[in-house]
Amino acid sequence: MSELSVKHLLGIKYLKEKDIQLIFETADHFKEVINRSIKKVPSLRDITIANIFFENSTRTKLSFELAEKRLSADVINFSAGQSSVNKGETLIDTVNNILSMKVDMVVMRHPNPGAGIFLSKHVNASIVNAGDGAHEHPTQALLDSYSIRERLGDVAGKKVVIVGDILHSRVALSNIFALKLQGAQVKVCGPKTLMPKHIESLGVEVETNLRKALVWCDVANMLRIQNERLDISYFPTTREYTQQFGVNKALLDSLDKEVVIMHPGPINRGVEITSDVADSKQSIILGQVENGVAIRMAVIYLLASKIK
Ligand code: CP
Q1: Taking the CB of residue 275, how many other CB atoms lie within 10 A of it?
Q2: Where would you tag: which of 206, 281, 294, 298 has the fewest CB atoms within 10 A of its CB?
């Protein structure tokens, strides 16, 4: 397989297992490129990409921009906070105005689930979902699986637990789709109030005891509590949440094996993860960020090859 089965990257749900393998093989090449002294290739000199962010971001925004520049694409950046969105302009009008400047690809983060899908039906450009509300964050899940493959050799057959606010997490949903597609076993762990109804229908098991989940797994992906999406109180106090679902060094040291620790960022140090764990050799958190650039280069390169 030499090309993706999709024209847009809207979610992992729309990918096939072969798409993921192609993205990983392409990322392997780009990871080698970005570790050279000259980190840039001329592949996308004729492509213009707009990064449009309607929600805050550090890692994803910088990582996409760097990936695009490493591929020699022309890049324009748009943040809703400083734009005419504040004057009432609609999403379609905003994007059509950007596209009339001859833009080929749009990378979009938006607070509304399905915003990328909606856009892909109304504009003539390749759309990359950089996170849409509590729905999907496909490039995060791809870089997460790529980092597991790098550390453990393969994703198939590995046991992964995703811990925390599963209900509001686009990272959790995209990771579940990606891990299951590659043949991993997946559990989710967190307070019952932060567990979506019928989550088992996605082929995952629910575990409410973190210690049991850690004894079972090879990898623990620790999620942040999505305070910006919590409309009510889902647990009594942050302290109680940390006592039950936070990972700390004493807990990890009490296991008779080494669990790989992941986190998509941003980290709430001392809440879902202590600093001594986040900064330990068991943690691959900064490796995930490094791999994000290679994965996003691969995604953009493969989608650009489908632009007519
Ligand atoms: N992981 C992630 O999406 O981080 P940002 O919100 O900083 O982009």
Answers
A1: 12
A2: 281
